[in-house]
Design brief:
CATH class of the largest domain: Alpha Beta
CATH superfamily of the largest domain: P-loop containing nucleotide triphosphate hydrolases
Largest sheet: 7 strands, parallel
CATH architecture of the largest domain: 3-Layer(aba) Sandwich
Radius of gyration: 27 Å
Distance between the termini: 52 Å
Number of domains: 6
Shape: globular
Bound molecules: adenosine-5'-diphosphate, zinc ion
Number of strands: 32
Length: about 750
């Protein structure tokens, strides 16, 4: 009998993040369910609070007296917005990530779905679209945030404020300013229920006849899908180069799983960058496929979510947050390109989609397939240690081979007096390519600002003696960077080191800070090849007037000869005219200062080799390096993952990095520098105290000093942090959560805890 229930609040401080008991009024008994969104009176608050129903009881649970229990005020949606499994998942997320159950549930559900209860929502539209377009073109707008909002509204005409804030990544303040300046206006509108999502027209296609290797993979995965039991994990690592037929394996297993009446969830790094996958899914399965875009189409997203929730669509494909899709009878979960960092959320709750996928696979009795051409070292290690099953697709399906990879030794260039960031060889190849009417791509590390110190005479790179990762320059929040920083920092252990005058290896004075950004590269090409047409893609350009897709489309239409960008450009598209790809500095990739640097460098180099030459012409890849003999560069040149893995896993073991050890990061942020720093110190003291008090458990825990983050100030907020390392992720979680709950934190300072962060910048 549904007489009483537990409710968790949607927006609760950790302190109030508990289950609260309410009585269910007679009138709601029919329609209320687990996962329903309700309004409840809470404490002395004047307005009602929103919450989720998590459990039912016949009689008042615990020691409550019936007359102390209050009634649920109202039900906000006719049907529950999350499933029972998702409620369980939310509790699990609270245990793993420093978040409330409400934070977790809010992250699972698109904002429009949550606002359905409000019959009318606050929405915004442009007052005059022509004027707004002019305003964009005039360049008068100072803030990129305003630009993003206007662009969104130009594309979608109107949208609820919650959706705009999420999609454009802005605060309500930005919207208010735009309204005050007469650019946009607010209005109340009802939540639309139906607006069909435009589905791309795709010709239906039959399955291929599987190759022998594909057949074996399909049988093994499908066999496991048959026999896996609830609560146990059956995981596969499908390992094969780009074009080896992994996607075909997913599709054929999916077909079998569907025919048994079960459902399929497929995760891709980013929908916009993986048009092939969605096209092939639709070609094969038609309208049984739902695509969960992060793109702003509130009505479409609402509709899609409701249909998945009603279990009407058996295949869901989407990026990170699609891992929460409310399917309740999963038989197969696929994570394509499992090595991608986009599976890690960088906002609260900082979940890792692959962890969530594992939990959901167990809850559903589904198999989990991770696919990659360059798996994470820790994922490959799992396969070697019986935690997952390795399946290989050894060769490309089509005739076209991989591109030739050539390594250029930059030490020789410098010795010859060429101090530019382009080797002679590369400049030559670029101009040949352009003469022949072909295209080229130039790749840089994502972080132009992280500078690494190398000796350009011998290739020595400045590393932390304790952590064995590259040291990077600290970004001074007050002024410009000097040419050669005099101090470098390791941001795992926070030790500082002075940049030596002479190279400790060869005695040379040719010590250099390397870290060119995309803009600098563009300028350099303009100098060397004044006639080349260049497109640049990085965070600056993609947040502006052009989206990723527009830049990539323009390049595909051959509107430029050279595309310069960060790793983003190595993904997704097949450019048939690209015959040359270049990585300007392998050293920069290896010197990002993250312990994953080698892994990510290898991935990028391999991805680039797999990219070029997908057309009819064979491609060529040039990698410039001051350390041409580095094992990562050598393995990448031969495209030999195994060789890379064999060396990298030894390093990980020696240094106790993932999968052998874990890093916990607590970051404090706020506008007042001293307040932030003081709070970080207090937090550090708490952690130290806990380590002492529970000595045995934390005997092997290593606590670093309090320090400013490598980028000390972002958007006027100061960031200080405390890093902890331990063999056990559970230990780290427990330790940091305990300290966080004890901490007296001033109002203006926020705290983020991240276990095994992907980026420590
Ligand atoms: P991956 O996902 O590993 O990059 P795909 O599954 O996309 O590989 O396959 C690469 C190409 O080969 C695709 O164009 C696909 O249509 C084709 N293909 C895949 N499997 C087969 C097969 N068994 N027979 C013929 N062509 C295939
Ligand atoms: Zn040297
Ligand atoms: Zn260190």
């Amino acid at each position: 009998m549904k007489c009483y229930c537990y409710v968790v609040l949607a927006y609760a401080a950790r302190h109030f993040d508990r289950e609260w008991t309410y009585r269910i009024p007679e009138s709601l008994k029919e329609s209320i369910d687990i996962g329903s969104v309700v309004n409840v009176p809470f404490g002395t608050r004047k307005t009602l609070s929103r919450g989720f129903v998590t459990r039912f009881f016949d009689s008042p649970p615990g020691h409550y007296h019936d007359n102390k229990i209050r009634d649920i005020d109202s039900l906000l949606s006719p049907r529950p917005v999350v499933t029972e499994e998702q409620v369980k998942l939310a509790y699990e997320m609270k245990r793993r990530y420093y978040c409330s159950v409400g934070d977790a549930l809010n992250a699972m559900v698109p904002p429009t779905v949550l606002s359905v209860g409000d019959r009318r929502v606050k929405a915004a539209r442009l007052i005059d679209t022509e004027e707004a377009t002019e305003l964009l073109d005039s360049g008068d707008l100072r803030s990129m945030k305003q630009v993003r909002v206007i662009e969104l509204l130009l594309e979608h005409e109107e949208a609820p404020c919650t959706e705009i804030r999420q999609a454009a990544d802005v605060s309500q303040g930005v919207l208010n300013t735009l309204a005050k300046n007469g650019v946009i206006e607010f209005f109340q509108r009802s939540v639309p229920r139906t607006l069909p999502e435009e589905l791309e027209e795709v010709e239906p296609a039959e399955a291929f006849e599987a190759t022998e290797a594909q057949q074996e993979a399909i049988e093994k995965i499908d066999g496991a899908a048959h026999s896996v039991s609830l609560g146990s994990l059956r995981e596969f690592m499908l390992f094969g180069v780009t074009g080896s037929g992994k996607t075909e394996v997913y599709l054929q297993v999916a077909d079998r799983v569907l025919s048994r009446g079960q459902q399929v969830l497929i995760l891709v790094p980013e929908i916009a960058l993986t048009p092939q996958m969605t096209r092939r899914l639709i070609a094969r399965f038609g309208d049984r496929v739902a695509i969960l875009h992060s793109r702003l189409t509130p009505a479409g997203r609402y509709e899609t979510w409701q249909r998945i929730l009603a279990q009407e669509i058996p295949i869901v494909v989407g990026a990170r947050s699609a891992v929460f899709a409310p399917l309740n009878n999963l038989g197969l979960i696929v994570v394509d390109e499992e090595q991608e960092s986009s599976y890690k959320a960088e906002m609260k709750p900082r979940y890792y989609a692959i962890d969530i996928a594992r939990i959901r696979a167990m809850m559903n009795g589904a198999v989990l397939v991770l696919g990659s051409a360059t798996p994470q070292v820790s994922s490959y290690w799992r396969a070697h240690n019986g935690l997952s099953t390795l399946l290989r697709l050894p060769e490309r399906i089509s005739e076209v081979g991989m591109a030739d990879v050539e390594v250029v030794d930059m030490r020789r260039e410098y010795a010859r007096g060429n101090l530019s960031i382009f080797s002679k060889r590369l400049t030559q190849e670029l101009s040949y390519a352009i003469e022949r009417g072909e295209q080229a791509m130039i790749l840089l590390n994502r972080r132009g600002f992280s500078r690494t110190i190398i000796c350009r005479n011998c290739g020595w790179q400045m590393r932390c003696p304790f952590c064995d990762i590259a040291l990077t320059s600290h970004r001074n929040p007050y002024g410009e960077q000097s040419r050669l920083p005099n101090r470098m920092v390791c941001h795992l252990c926070e030790r500082l080191a002075r940049v030596p005058k002479h190279c400790p290896e060869c005695g040379s004075e040719e010590i250099m800070a390397f870290g060119a950004g995309t803009q600098q590269v563009e300028e350099e090409i303009r100098k060397q090849l004044p006639h080349a047409r260049i497109l640049r893609m990085d965070l600056d350009t993609t947040r502006g007037r052009f989206s990723h897709k527009e830049i990539l489309d323009a390049f595909e239409r051959h509107e430029a000869d050279i595309l310069v960008g960060t790793q983003m450009i190595a993904k997704g598209h097949d450019f048939h005219d690209v015959t040359l790809s270049a990585i300007l500095s392998a050293d920069q990739l290896l010197g990002t200062g993250e312990f994953r640097a080698s892994e990510q460098a290898f991935q990028l180099m391999t991805q680039v080799a797999g990219r070029s030459g997908r057309g009819l012409k064979k491609g060529r890849v040039i990698i410039q390096a001051v350390q041409p003999d580095h094992f990562v560069v050598r393995a990448a040149a031969k495209q030999d993952y195994e060789a890379f893995y064999r060396e990298e896993i030894v390093f990980r073991k020696r240094m106790e990095y993932l999968p052998f050890g874990h890093v916990g990061m607590a970051q404090l942020k706020g506008f007042d520098r001293y307040e932030v720093e003081d709070t970080a110190r207090a937090f550090h003291r708490d952690v130290a105290l806990l380590i002492r008090r529970y000595g045995g458990t934390f005997a092997r825990t290593v606590l670093s000093e309090v320090s400013p983050a490598p980028i000390e100030r972002i958007r006027s907020r100061y960031r200080y942090r405390v890093m902890v390392r331990d063999e056990s992720a559970e230990n780290l979680t427990r330790l940091l959560f305990m300290a966080a709950d004890d901490l007296k934190r001033p109002k203006g300072v926020s705290l983020v805890i991240d276990i095994d962060p992907w980026t420590t910048f």
